[in-house]
Known about the structure:
Its EC number is 5.1.3.2. By secondary structure, the protein is of the alpha/beta class. The protein is about 40% helix and about 15% strand.
Amino acid sequence: MSKILVTGGTGYIGSHTVVELQNAGYEVIIVDNLDNSSIGILDQIEKITGIRPEFYQIDLCEEDKVKDLILNNPDISGVIHFAAHKAVGESVQFPLKYYRNNFFSLINLLTAFKGRDINLVFSSSCTVYGQPDRLPVTEEAPVKKAESPYGNTKQIAEEVLSETAAANTNYHVISLRYFNPVGAHESGLIGELPLGVPQNLVPFITQSAIGKRGSITVYGDDYNTPDGSCIRDYIHVVDLAKAHIAALKRQEAGKMQENFEIFNIGTGKGSSVLEVIGAFEKSTGVKLEYKIGARRSGDVEQVWGDVSKAENELNWKAELGLEDMLRSAWAWEKYISENPL
Length: 341
């Protein structure tokens, strides 16, 4: 049984990936400093899979602790690296916080595995594309100047990984550029758990629907899109989690053509903000209150991905639709309103 280290494994995407890893027969070690997640997620994972993953509360910026962990677990064969700060707005306010955390953690991890064969799957983002010149955006699209320090950390991290893999053939790295993950596990036991006011659309929708928030603001209805609102490629978090297993299996089977590879992970279809609101109402029967506001600075007008490379080379494809995403997100919102973590 392969042992996989999941950094940030109690977070939103991390916890769903841990579940899918365990379902696929992997042994999992989670490292998380609980800066943006709850220890209670371990109980939830155990309820779903019947297996409690090994857990270490470690800040990956502490180099000695990372080295000790890796030394004491010589049978780790793969790493899925989620742990990072990820709020765009906060990164603009506190750039050094983002550069310190997102780079030190990655460098400490890579250093700790020096000399060992390791498969690493990196949590990247479609943020690296900015507003693409052409849609759908492919992996060959130019990486544009980042709109935020957060986006810049993803761009530079990919450069660090590419150059490290080129210089050390024992590192096998796949970077997954996610589009917009939403939804929750079908059990309703894990899902997105934002601290404070949600920065993303779907958790704001579900919190508004349950009465935690007021009316939803749609930022702009005058974009050059069919209904005037911004368009994104939304992907169900469970489909996204399964993409990580597909990437690991590619590495384990020795199918990588280069030591550093990039894949877009999305549905290949864009949905507007107003379409998401409509799909939520249709799939749940809950009416939403929303208003049109001014455009928000930094928002990309529209982006969705060409995911044919992932379909062809990872043998992976998104299976769940927008209504599945919103129905599951609503089930999770109702669960945590009655069972706070």
